[in-house]
Amino acid sequence: xxxxxxxxxxxxxxxxxxxxxxxxxxxxxxxxxxxxxxxxxxxxxxxxxxxxxxxxxxxxxxxxxxxxxxxxxxxxxxxxxxxxxxxxxxxxxxxxxxxxxxxxxxxxxxxxxxxxxxxxxxxxxxxxxxxxxxxxxxxxxxxxxxxxxxxxxxxxxxxxxxxxxxxxxxxxxxxxxxxxxxxxxxxxxxxxxxxxxxxxxxxx
Length: 204
Prior knowledge:
Elements: H1 2-9, E1 46-50, H2 51-57, H3 59-98, H4 104-154, E2 162-166, H5 182-196, H6 199-203
Parallel strand pairs: 1-2
């Protein structure tokens, strides 16, 4: 049971491997500039997205993280319940054995049965952890695809040749704010995400 918290706590959102390359052309010199407006002469056709800010402010990430956390909590409670039940069975068996209420055959078969249940619980724990990690991978792919799809529309005029990922501790140590399109991207992706959700969901 000790392993589950370590494994499950390692399942964190995020992973949007926000493209190092996107074969589009021409950047924006300020966040306020319209995506369709031309770049000032002499400006490099590149831009960047702050992935930390994107992960923090993109509503889809928040919704996916909430759903994942709820599933994780449910799994932990299920494991705790199963673990408590097994612990109770082991305690009961131990008390009966110490009181010499079990024959040698009952003692042996009881020990084997408890060991099998323990091994089954450990296997179940690993399956749950593996399932959560696999789901995290799928979420990461979904976020990446969502961003890439949005950028294709956002950059339909081929203004940017490259859109880079900027994150603290990443490959880029500093970045010019004039090349930052994060705000526009977040606003656009949130609008698109909101529009894609059923009205009933929005009202909740």
